[in-house]
Write a structure and sequence with these properties.
This protein is an alpha/beta fold and 317 residues long. The protein is 28% helix and 22% strand.
Length: 317
């Protein structure tokens, strides 16, 4: 499945003045003959290609002094396999092949790269991201409804262990993109060893997850994280009733269960408002009443794209 230029929400121009696109050097890759999109590429400020030609560190430094460093570029296919296409274009599958502004702002926020001044005129707090210490271990991040998985991939590039999750019917695309871009740190679902996740100190993994308490507990058990849970749980543009219905009820159940397992977990929800019937207010109101949720705080608002970021915390012991 390919895409054309019709949607204003798509980032279709190679050269863009939009701050989201410009920040990650976003590029849409198109078939020259049809001009249909086949993939997207992006890079993250400060993350460069590592040399893999056997050069010593001193030689590498000398060479880097002689030439400009090249940012590492991630290329992600946006083509769904034929078997994954929904009956006459299901919106959930299509949305899973798009990179949305809320996803870029979310990873900027978590990585500490987001200017918070714009929050002051919205009633939000402008609070910078803070994470409870994860000890000597790498920070772990779970992305829910990840689609292309761009925020999780970037956070993995920044040094964290990441599990990307989405519906099973778009997982083929997600797994391939992860394997193609992170061959040395990816853990394939075909690996049978229960200890495979922990055998790699730095890992990224794509797994299916149907939102529910039972589903997320099964995932944690499979990952051997039933006691620890995750440090960060991220969801980007997962609430939009015209497309997803009231699935936000299940999203809240999943978030609540993750806070039950790890009350120190920080849940980041980044969403673009698309009208009064988008369901976001209902989602946030219900989240505040969940059993293991202590607080829900709006920490960021961007007027131009109408993006809001909320941080949810549990009852830390």
């Amino acid at each position: 499945m390919s895409h054309n230029n019709d949607s204003d929400d798509d980032w279709s121009e190679t050269q863009s003045v939009d701050s989201c696109e410009a920040y990650i050097s976003f590029e849409s890759i198109r078939d020259p003959s049809t001009q249909l999109e086949e993939a997207v590429s992006f890079s993250w400020p400060g993350i460069y290609h590592c040399r893999e030609d056997g050069s010593t560190e001193e030689e590498e430094v000398q060479q880097q002094q002689q030439e400009d460093r090249v940012l590492r570029k991630i290329t992600i296919s946006t083509l769904l396999e034929e078997d994954d296409l929904a009956p006459l274009f299901g919106g959930c599958q299509w949305a899973g092949t798009r990179l949305w502004g809320a996803a870029v702002r979310a990873i900027q926020y978590i990585a500490g790269h987001l200017e918070m001044d714009e929050s002051n005129n919205s009633g939000s707090s402008g609070t910078k991201f803070e994470l409870s210490s994860s000890g000597d271990n790498k920070t772990t991040l779970l992305e829910l409804g990840c689609g292309l998985g761009v925020p999780g991939m970037i956070y993995h590039m920044l040094g964290s262990n990441v599990v990307l999750t989405d519906q099973e019917d778009i997982l083929t695309q997600l797994e391939k993109n992860v394997e193609d871009n992170f061959p040395s740190t990816v853990i394939s679902n075909e690996e049978s060893s229960l200890d495979s996740t922990f055998a790699k100190q730095h890992y990224i993994r794509a797994m299916p997850l149907s939102w529910s308490r039972k589903g997320v507990n099964s995932l944690l058990k499979q990952l051997q994280l039933s006691k620890e849970g995750f440090d960060i749980v991220l969801n980007c543009d997962c609430v939009f009733e015209p497309l997803y219905g009231e699935s936000w009820h299940l999203l809240n159940e999943t978030i609540d269960e993750l806070l039950k397992v790890n009350p120190k977990c920080v849940v980041v929800s980044s969403m673009e408002r698309r009208g009064p019937a988008d369901g976001i207010d209902l989602f946030i109101d219900e989240m505040k009443e969940m059993e293991y949720v202590k607080s829900v705080e709006k920490v960021y608002y961007e007027e131009r794209r109408n993006i809001e970021i909320y941080v949810t915390r549990g009852f830390e012991k």
